[in-house]
## 1
Amino acid sequence: MLFWAGFLLIVLGVACVAVDRRAVHLIYDHVGARFHNFLSATTHLAKAAHWLIAACLVYGASWAWLRWIGENAGVRLASQAALAFVASLALGSAVLHGVKLILGRRRPRDELEMNQYGFILFGFNLDWNSFPSGHALTIMCVAVIATALWPQLSVLWFAVAFWLGLTRALLTAHFLSDVFVGAGIGLISAREALVLFFPQLALPWF
């Protein structure tokens, strides 16, 4: 299910390319200062570095517990979840950054400030890195891992992930297509990482 959900998000993202320029101007013109401040305060909850540090800390603490205190099912599960997130993020990031380098898309700020828009194919310029969104990828990986641990709250995890990804477009840090494609890659990479390397965490409907 997650594979096809991710695939549909990617298709939706590609379709959004046709309306991205109009959408970014519409968003820029209608997001007020107060809402912008709220978005700015929450959007970095999807930043990869924060979650990667958290995963490393959880894994380190779990390793120490299992080594010095003894086996514990909950601690073992936390250790596996931390590793699963790192694997998901690594797999997704490899795809995402490859796409970024090859397609070379300008950021919305270039469109808004200089009227410069487009993809610079095979430019291999790290400044042309809008497509896809790394924040959207990261937070979708988090949602999949959280769902594996607490499946009864899966709707909440994915709703929060979708919102945090969308904040990137509402802040005009990314185009809508960047967000949807990044989220789709995140879903697929997390699903594949769990099924292939951590089957004990993968739910039957994944």
Note: DSSP finds nine helices and no strands in the chain.
## 2
Amino acid sequence: MNWFKFSAPSTFYPLAGRLIPWFAALAALFGGVGLWIGLVVAPTDFQQGEAYRIIFIHVGAAWMSMFIYLVMAFWGGMGLAFKTRLSGMMTEALAPTGTMFAFLSLWTGALWGRPTWGAWWIWDARLTSSLILLFLYIGFIALTRAIDDPRRADRAGAVLLLVGVVNVPIIYFSVQWWNTLHQPASLSVGKGSSMAAIMLWGMLLCTVAMWMYSIALTLARVRTIILVRERHTDWVRALLAALPAQNSR
């Protein structure tokens, strides 16, 4: 299969439409099982009590906020290098979801920190760099919306994404580089997991659900962006002209 053909909005649009129901169904499935394990099956933590259950949302949201930014930076770099129209559309479609997860990460972290640390917020290295990530998302949205020409907006947004990507490893390694109040990672590639297996499974399933949800939502949003940006092309005109005929059946 020639995957490069899907870099064109006209071919990516129908592909995205076919994929959305699958990813939405997977998000509901994994999310339901993950939350059932996290809220019902997993035992109470002997140190943090019931408050630890926020990890089933917080950890996945934190991971997704960083991962989505990296994906946006990838698309931004592709757009600068190859001048593909779809690249800018993908960054625009991903930005609101990344912003939501960045905010959710900070908010759930505050809810977790109050009973655990005794404070809603501290200027910890992990928390501060995560706040900067939220500002980068908001700055990207504000910058691209302030420029009328979509191609110029895409280039300006891509530059901001590539400059800001240095913040992602700072977030991830902050607990190792500095003496922070935030606890070290409970899961790592080299050391494995310090969590109980049932807790780990619940957290991972919730994270996969967030991943599937992000893909489904991004695909749905990028289809709308494609129709708006490509509205003057023949294929979009033909598509929109066929809609009344389909709705009348």
Note: The first strand starts at residue 187 and ends at 188.
## 3
Amino acid sequence: MTEGSTGRSSKTLLILGGTGLVGSNLIEQALAHPQVGRVIAPTRRPLVISDRLLNPLLDFDELPANAPWWQADAVLCALGTTLGQAGSREQFYRVDHDYVLQAANYARQAGTPVFVLNSSLGAATGSRSFYLRTKGKTENDIEGLGYGSVTHVRPSLLDGGVRPQFRLGESMGLWLVKGLRPLVPPRYQAVSTRDVAAAMLEAALQPAPGVNIIESEQIRRST
């Protein structure tokens, strides 16, 4: 952490999942924020170059345990896939739980004090849904790592425009929720990926102690 020209502390943020819709919004908003001096975004494929962006290229199956960039002011995690894209429950769990937890553990060991997770509405270890059970397990396991501040952001359906990879179920859900918006409770309305990123960034820059939950209806809507 360094001092900026105004005397305000400049924060270093570690963003995971930077090639996804939420993650790319996180990087864009973080680089534009006056409190952020540096963004670290490890990815499988290269990102657009920026003078304040460090982009280590890596395989999440082989994360470097002692990389110096694990030490940051906060981790913002938008890693995630779907059961359809993953191809199996085992691979889905590997991405949405194992990758996330291993990265969270390395960052905590390096002294990073804050973790913000893009989770899901309904995340719970006791859920009947394998997807939501996995999200709940990931939340619980991160809470056990000893971070001073943990925030789980739990959006409903994500609305981020056209994805690089088409998701039929998600597209149908968005079409239905948007069409019935006046009848849909705020908790279940679609949330823009920009708003999710903004909520995550605020939680990282103004961390509250302990474990915090931001439910879907609490995410500020810009649309």
Note: The helical segments are 21-32, 83-86, 89-109, 130-143, 168-179, 193-205.
## 4
Amino acid sequence: MALTRRQKEVMEFLDGFIKERGYSPSFEEIASALGLASLATVHKHVQALQAKQYLNRNYNHSRSLEIGERYFAEENARNPKPIDRAVPLMGRIAAGSPVEAIQNPEILHFSDFVRNEGTFALEVRGDSMIEDHICSGDFVLVEKTNSLRNGDIVVALVDGSEATLKRFYTEPDGRVRLQPANSSMQPIFVNPENLAIQGKVLGIMRKY
């Protein structure tokens, strides 16, 4: 049986109260927080939630309400947590002379590369950033941000239609220079009002 709107409000209040304080609220606190007219109304909601197996209650103790597993199961199904994929970091390898392997492996979490929910990925097409070792077919992780520094690699939208991956620089005359990392290509100069920065690059992924 589904929860009514008011029953859902009761459960959300109980869940938040218990997580914050470590114990359940009194019936008076429930009534006050939810604007319920009487304690009898609180009792009615609690009994209905017990019958639906969302709440457990120990009648021999005060503040004895406990949230049932059914509520947690349904909340987890409704709001699944993102899976934090991780692999063991077994050592470090140099392009020149060898380096010592790590004796006690660390864990590399892919969430370390995703700083916020605004992070997204794009597949690279073209060779304009080849000298920065960003190749066509690579994937770049991009973070939405309003904070940029000269030299950041950004996803730039020029004139509202043309998206490009370039290094960002501000020029003395107020224009922005979008610099490719390919000596055979020319930079793009654009006025700030004709430019929208979609984000800056956090990292690169490549499949072999």
Note: Residues 3 and 99 are 60 Å apart (CA to CA).
